[in-house]
Amino acid sequence: MTGSDLLPARLSDELDVLAARLVAAEGTSIRLLNYIGGRAENMLEHLPDWAKDELERATERALGYAVEAAQVSRGRLRDQPAWVNTGFTTVLGAAGGSGGLPTALAELPVTTTVLFRAILGIAAAHGFDPGKPEVRREGLTVFSAAGPLEYDDGANTGFLATRVTLSGSTVRSVIARVAPRLSIVLGQKLAAQTVPVLGAAAGAATNYAYTRYYQQMAHVHFGLARLAREGGHDTAVLTEALRARLPRRV
After folding, report:
1. Residue pair 144/181 in contact by the 8 Å Cβ criterion
2. What is the mean pLDDT of residues 106-114?
3. Over the stretch 22-45, which tens digit does the pLDDT of each residue have?
4. Closest to 160 in 3D by CA, of 226, 101, 209
5. What is the pLDDT of residues 63-77, one digit of tens each?
6. Would you call 164 helix, strand, or coil by DSSP?
7. Is the Cβ–Cβ distance between 140 and 178 less than 8 Å?
8. Which of 34, 87, 89, 112 has the lowest tally of Cβ within 10 angstroms?
9. Phi, psi angle pair for 248, to nearest 5°
10. Which residues make Cβ contacts (< 8 Å) with residue 241, sequence separation at least 6?
11. Does residue 55 contact residue 187 with C-beta atoms inside 8 Å?
12. Which residues contact 155 (CB under 8 A, 6 or more apart)?
């Protein structure tokens, strides 16, 4: 018998809900983005060399901007429902894709800010204070989840074992760790937006998928942290129990 078999019934039910969120996050997003990928094979090859070289640096800058802007905006604008965030980023994606690479690059920090702001709102819904540096750092780690275009066995739950408080870490160090992975996801998005014929449609579709995906992942991340905090459960045990609820892939 494993530690996860000994969990109380209420806790088991909540883990079932989080597992359903993980499955839902991958479902629509992967089907949609696989369709886009099928229409634009080797999408990253469509980016010019200078854009590929700049991508990770641009992602770091976008994350840094998002941390500051999202926190400031929380004092002026209340958190929005998931559908509002998704609708807003979908419109941003369409606008970014309508003008090719220049407008897509200009849209990147704005979309990243909206995504991060949505993640902070979800943290607050689970009882965490987004004004605390450790919560903002945890919000950034949500971006290190495997993106909808990529399936890496265990990657979607591996990051969940991170403690809510990252002792000794700074926001900048977390950004440096998250940026390489997020830049791959955003690179696919930028490339799709520059492909002839796809353009605005690809920008809207990718933003729609990413926003749904990261909001679901934020619920899983902070939901698991809340369960660990409320019941004093070991995060690794909860992560194991969550993983056991996911359907096996053939």
Report:
1. yes
2. 89
3. 888 877 665 666 565 554 445 666
4. 226
5. 888 888 887 787 777
6. coil
7. yes
8. 34
9. -75, 140
10. 3, 4, 7, 12, 15
11. yes
12. 145, 146
Per-residue pLDDT tens digits for 201-236: 888 888 888 888 889 989 988 998 899 888 777 778
- For tokens 């996050």, what's the residue? 25
* Average pLDDT for 187-210: 78
CA distance 154 to 138: 19
Q: Which pair of structure tokens corresponds to residue 47?
A: 């980016």
Assigned token pair, 135: 């919560």
Full-model pTM:
0.81
Sign, CA dihedral 130-131-132-133, equals: positive
Which residues does 86 contact at the CB level (< 8 Å), separation at least 6? 208, 211, 212, 215
H/E stretch holding 37: helix 9-39
**CB contact at 8 A, 104 and 190:** yes
* pLDDT of res. 40: 45
CA 67, CA 185: separation in Å to the nearest integer?
Answer: 19
| Cβ within 8 Å of residue 132, ≥6 positions away | none
Domain map of the chain by residue range?
A: 15-244
The answer to whether 37 and 149 are in contact (CB under 8 A) is: yes
Q: Is 237 helix (H, G, I), strand (E, B) or coil?
A: helix
Residue with tokens 């991958």: 26
